[in-house]
């Protein structure tokens, strides 16, 4: 189900066994120890030259297995990691870019050289950490548990809050190097055991020139991509859960899911300030979902923010704010479904973050920057959902749709005082939703429920002061990583103490 792991290189006496054995499974490698959470999905292969681990989940592994099967007759008997290794051998590195999921590929050869291949969409953020030891992990908390406060050299608050746009390998910690998404990272060591990291992209950067495409073709592509992402989940799930706001994205996902799953459960959240229950009820009644609503208290809002910081290791105020709603829905869904699907990511692809009626010289550039931003924020990390025993999937956030929308003519995204035009036209064409939902004005999930206002009120700032929200998130993030704060202790009193200290 999950993807949490940590590798530590031999050399310095690190008390991994005593501090982590209850929560992790250990595997001794040629030059170090690799640890996996009890919930981590692992596929392992070992031969005389190297040992390889596919960590996490490749959602379209059956498609990749099918491709390999065209030239390799025994593909059906290969493990998942063997499928990836074999197809790489046949087609080269770039073929791995078709894999979708919260995975990474970890390979160590007998000489002690390490290769880490990262996924491209920000679902599994892997870090190289240099303390007295060399660590590779997608969960920095593990290192904090072992080494304590001395593990991390945090950047100043000013360095972290002053910009909202960062390179996709940005880390707020000086001795942590974030591995770029969609890359092959080869870690070698010189004669004095100093590390050297060589990085190669799986594919070349995408050309940013707009291309021509007929509307009918575009509608077919959107339909095919969304249906493929949703329908393949029905093979292992009779029931699916969906966070339903009543906006276009979540409603569209719910409508399509209703065609493939025998039962659909939906949840809507709001606050005392506002909610979207009227619209989610329209969709639920129309599609016949098993629907629940929940008014969040201020304590529940801040709890969702804090849990997103802890599990997904988010330090960015906007991202933790948006994730609060999802984490509260995880809590509502726990034990009721195995998997959730969301409409998350659609706004960044189809123009939902743009202002209707406003003139933009380069709308695709704005959207591309925000898509890129998700590669370091941790908002698409699956760790949080896994902590509730859930798989979470985002049907809009596929390699094909991201690539398609990157260069899609803005005409399809913003015109006639409206945004997400092509997606609305698609929803209208399949005739599964009421017109009032298809053409409803766009509101962000954190705005419709007023989580953004509640967050601001709780920390005593203005609703759009995201520097203050990042300051709060970063303060809590540091305490979690240093081991000074346990998630069970993160009550309002404890949080106020941390804010005062920072």
TrEMBL record:
ATP binds at residue 269. L-glutamine binds at residue 80. Residues 3-201 form the Carbapenam-3-carboxylate synthase N-terminal domain. SUPFAM superfamilies: Adenine nucleotide alpha hydrolases-like (SSF52402), N-terminal nucleophile aminohydrolases (Ntn hydrolases) (SSF56235). One of its GO terms (biological process) is asparagine biosynthetic process. GO terms for cellular component: cytosol. GO terms for molecular function: asparagine synthase (glutamine-hydrolyzing) activity; ATP binding. It holds the Pfam family Asn_synthase. PANTHER family: ASPARAGINE SYNTHETASE, ASPARAGINE SYNTHETASE [GLUTAMINE-HYDROLYZING]. This is asparagine synthase (glutamine-hydrolyzing). It comes from Photorhabdus temperata J3.
């Amino acid at each position: 189900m999950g993807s949490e792991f940590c590798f530590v290189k031999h050399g310095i006496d690190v008390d991994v066994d005593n501090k982590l054995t209850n929560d992790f499974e250990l595997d001794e490698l040629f030059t170090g120890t690799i640890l996996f959470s009890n919930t981590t999905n692992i596929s392992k292969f070992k031969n005389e030259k190297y040992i390889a681990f596919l960590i996490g989940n490749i959602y379209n592994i059956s498609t990749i297995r099918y491709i390999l099967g065209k030239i390799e007759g025994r593909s059906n008997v290969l493990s998942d990691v063997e499928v990836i290794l074999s197809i790489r051998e046949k087609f080269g590195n770039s073929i791995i870019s078709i894999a979708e999921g919260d995975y990474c590929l970890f390979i160590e050869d007998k000489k002690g050289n390490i290769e880490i291949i990262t996924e491209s969409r920000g679902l599994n953020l892997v870090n190289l950490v240099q303390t007295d030891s060399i660590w590779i992990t997608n969960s920095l908390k593990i290192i904090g548990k072992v080494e304590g406060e001395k593990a991390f050299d945090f950047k100043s608050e000013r360095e972290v809050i002053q910009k909202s746009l960062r390179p996709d390998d940005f880390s707020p910690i000086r001795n942590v190097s974030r591995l770029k998404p969609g890359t092959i990272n080869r870690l070698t060591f010189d004669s004095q055991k100093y590390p050297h990291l060589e990085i190669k992209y799986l594919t070349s950067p995408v050309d940013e020139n707009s291309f021509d495409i007929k509307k009918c073709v575009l509608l077919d592509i959107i339909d095919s991509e969304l249906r493929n992402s949703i329908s393949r989940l029905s093979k292992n799930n009779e029931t699916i859960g969906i966070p339903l706001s009543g906006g276009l994205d979540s409603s569209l996902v719910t409508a399509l899911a209703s065609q493939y799953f025998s039962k659909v459960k939906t949840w809507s959240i709001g606050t005392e300030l506002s909610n979207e229950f009227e619209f989610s009820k329209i969709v639920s009644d129309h599609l016949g979902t098993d629907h629940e609503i929940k008014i969040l208290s201020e304590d529940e809002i801040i709890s969702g923010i804090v849990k997103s910081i802890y599990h997904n290791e988010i330090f960015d105020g906007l991202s933790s704010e948006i994730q609060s709603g999802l984490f509260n829905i995880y809590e509502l869904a726990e034990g009721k479904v195995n998997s959730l699907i969301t409409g998350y990511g659609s706004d960044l692809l189809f123009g939902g973050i743009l202002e209707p009626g406003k003139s933009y010289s380069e709308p695709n550039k704005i959207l591309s920057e925000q898509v890129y931003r998700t590669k370091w924020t941790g908002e698409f990390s699956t760790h949080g959902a896994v902590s509730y025993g859930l798989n979470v999937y985002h049907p809009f956030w596929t390699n094909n749709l991201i690539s398609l929308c990157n260069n899609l003519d803005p005409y399809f995204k913003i015109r006639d005082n409206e945004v997400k035009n092509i997606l609305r036209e698609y929803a209208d064409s399949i005739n599964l939703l009421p017109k009032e939902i298809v053409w409803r004005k766009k509101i962000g999930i954190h705005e419709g429920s007023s989580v953004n206002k509640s967050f601001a009120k709780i920390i005593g700032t203005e609703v759009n002061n995201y520097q203050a929200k990042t300051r709060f998130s970063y303060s809590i993030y540091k305490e979690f990583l240093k081991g000074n704060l346990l998630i069970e202790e993160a009550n309002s009193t404890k949080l106020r103490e941390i804010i005062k200290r920072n």
